Amino acid sequence: MVLGVGGRSIVLVVTGVAVAFALLSLRWWFIGSSDEPVSATDSQAAESLERWRARTEIMVAWADGNRGAWDRHLRPILAREFSMSTGHRPAKNPAAHDAAGRMLFGSELWEWVDPSAASHARRDEPAPGRAALDEILERLESI
Fold first, then answer.
1. Does 99 map to a domain?
2. Where are the transmembrane segments (predicted)?
3. Residue-wise pLDDT tens digits, 93-130
4. Which string of DSSP letters, residue by residue, matches 73-112?
């Protein structure tokens, strides 16, 4: 209609407005309101990070506590991670499991990972501490 009437000077403006309206409509149609999922994802990530931080603080407290807490909470986790990482199961071949543990950790640290070394009678002794836990985790990570 603009071309037929002779208003050629406004053709560019009218076309630009129509194309912009069409693109914004398509964007709104396909994307919708993206504010809600992003904030929900951020909230979930923050919550997950907070849970991880709390779990880590508890594990460090167990490492700095007594042997009973270490045996009850940390030793099963460390032993399971070692078994899963190496494929050596203590029930299949206890000697191979023990040899692999001593080779990876050394005799001193293996005492704190070996599932058969848990002692109810020595539960009041001090745990090895944060430094030993850190060293054990670094060695597990190197596998």
1. yes
2. 9-30
3. 888 889 999 999 999 999 999 998 998 899 999 999 99
4. IIHHHHHHHHHHHH---TTT-HHHHHHHHHHHHHHHHHTT
pTM of the model: 0.64
Number of domains the chain is built from: 1
Please give the residue range of the domain that contains residue 142: 52-143
The pLDDT tens digits for 3-51 are 565 666 666 667 777 788 888 887 777 776 555 555 677 788 888 999 9
Position 121 in a domain: yes
